Amino acid sequence: MPQNARVDVVEYGSRRLLIVAGVMLATVLQVLDATIVNVALPTIQGNLGANRDEGTWIITGYIIAAVIVIPLTPWLQTRFGRKRYYLAAILGFTVMSALCGAATSFEAEVLFRIMQGAFGGGLIATGQAILRDTFPPKDIGKSQVLVAIGAIVGPSIGPTLGGILTDNLSWNWVFYVNIVPGIIAAGIIFAYLRDPAPARSVSVDVFGLVFLGMGLGSLQYVLTEGERNDWFADPSILGFTALAAGGLIAFVFWELYGAREPIVDLRIFKNRTVAAGAMLALTLGFTLFGSIVITPQYNQTILHFTATLSGESILIRALFILICTPFVLVFINRFKINPRILLIVGFSLVSLACYLQATVTTSSAEFWTFWFPLALGGVGFSQLLAPLSVAVLSSVTGADTAKASSLLSLCQQLGGSIATAFLVTLLDRREAFHQTILAAHIPHASAQVTAHLGQLAAVVVREATTLSYADGFLALAAASALFIPLVLLLRTKRTSGPAAIAIE
């Protein structure tokens, strides 16, 4: 067999079940950690003596490291072998989780979180590629439904689990909770996973690595810190924006025209389905993580929910995702429904759910006020990730599978980062706008009003803030609807063979 030949790694029976269990555990760990820490952040800051601005680096450092590593995963799999890289990533993530929980200083916590993000960055993309190759072609829908369950449900249960652990144990447990599942996942992968191709020595694209790190790292910093530092009024944001633009432009030109063995193969964008799928993955990340950003803030700031209760409201959506996602497998495999139809329905339902959420966003809402929009959103999200992955991964073969899956993972992460930056800015701007409008309707000349100006001011601020959250949900609804036409660019057709999906 030639040194670089790929082998058939399709598995059956108990071996496949164990590999699926290991991959799903690793996937859930990575996506869970993207949101579980948010709820515990105020407690972590207090215990480690950090102020609010410093404390955000516990989240920012993790995301920046993950974003840089995600597009490198195909190269890392080629250089070290898929199994060896994936096992090292799981073990590294688990060890860093333990160190994050045991950290006694703020500086150590940030360092360990950066390293945790670096190890965790490639877990979803690699796991997606593993399941794509572990199942036979006719079951590609089944493999991606399993990925979707972990990748979409995980962020939704993160706030709930984080609130429960922080309220009832301590903040340390939002990290310690990863240890046992991480060890189990690593043991399964070590014992049962096979490599589709042997590792081979490839040169290190030093310039590509530098440009990528500079571009994506700077971009993530700008997205995360921009609103807090008043965007381009702050020299650091202006400088990092220039670095991001310069780094990404240089990266694209170098990878396309300068690198002999590019660390990221951008030519995969010639595949129209991959290019359209990347934009749809960005939209999915925008709406999924965007709603997770503003919902807890609204629940706790306006409705005064506890961290646990706020997390439980998001859990309603997660439960409907979990219940409905398996039905997507039936739609794809048994009824041979075109993934484009499922994606159009899914994005439409998510858009409608966000719109309905906006209509019931008031300062006097109760826990069960939102159950229908959340449930509807869960049904919609259940029809997005798996059909999108099926359409995109069906358009590639061999080594391109890892490239396409890492691209989808990167775009979802960037979509979440863009959503966070956009919504934080939108909330700030719209709150000021609504305060101005509401205050203009108060008759200041009235003696009765003048005597209660303090109380009125508090009411104006509360209602203006509430209206800004409603605007945020409307923005998510618009984003979901705006990109639906991109679904039509996915080139899929039904085949007469056992595979449900093929590319034209």
Keyword list:
74% helix, mainly alpha
Question: What's the SSE blueprint?
Answer:
Elements: H1 13-48, H2 52-55, H3 57-69, H4 73-80, H5 82-102, H6 106-120, H7 123-134, H8 140-168, H9 173-176, H10 179-192, H11 206-225, H12 235-258, H13 272-301, H14 307-334, H15 339-359, H16 371-381, H17 385-393, H18 400-440, H19 447-451, H20 453-482
Helix pairs in contact: 1-3, 1-7, 1-8, 1-10, 3-6, 3-11, 4-5, 5-6, 5-7, 5-10, 7-8, 7-18, 8-13, 8-14, 8-17, 11-12, 11-18, 13-14, 13-17, 13-18, 13-20, 14-16, 15-16, 15-17, 15-20, 18-20
Characterise this structure.
- With 504 residues, this protein is an all-alpha fold.
- 74% of the residues lie in helices and 0% in strands.
- The chain has helices spanning 13-48, 52-55, 57-69, 73-80, 82-102, 106-120, 123-134, 140-168, 173-176, 179-192, 206-225, 235-258, 272-301, 307-334, 339-359, 371-381, 385-393, 400-440, 447-451, 453-482.
- Helix 1 packs parallel to helix 8 (140-168) and helix 5 packs antiparallel against helix 10 (179-192).
- The longest helix has 41 residues, at 400-440.
- It is globular.
- It starts with 12 loop residues before the first helix and ends in a 22-residue tail after the last helix.
Short description:
This protein is an all-alpha fold and about 500 residues long. It is built from 20 helices and no strands.
Task: Report the order of strands and helices.
Answer: HHHHHHHHHHHHHHHHHHHH
Low-confidence stretches: 494-504
**Fraction of helical residues:** over 70%
How many strand units?
A: 0
The rounded distance between the terminal residues' Cα atoms is 31 Å
Globally, the shape reads: globular
